[in-house]
Design brief:
single chain, 2 helices
Length: 68
């Protein structure tokens, strides 16, 4: 039986990858007039990295055990 937390970890990791990629894209190609007030903090990079780390922790912690 596979734990639901394993799938939640996959979901967190995938969302983290997407948000982090979008943040890195904005770092490389910054908008001319950012409409976000605190744009200089680059929250999407930080949140993307945080989601990716938590997702990987959940994936490794709740991974299905292999029988040998």
């Amino acid at each position: 039986m596979i734990s639901i937390w394993f799938f939640i970890g996959i979901s967190l990791a995938m969302n983290g990858v997407l948000i982090l990629a979008a943040g890195i894209n904005q770092l490389i190609n910054p908008p001319e007039n950012p409409s976000v007030v605190l744009y200089h903090l680059h929250a999407n990079v930080w949140w993307g990295a945080l989601l990716l780390v938590f997702g990987l922790i959940y994936c490794f912690r709740f991974a299905p055990k292999r029988k040998s």
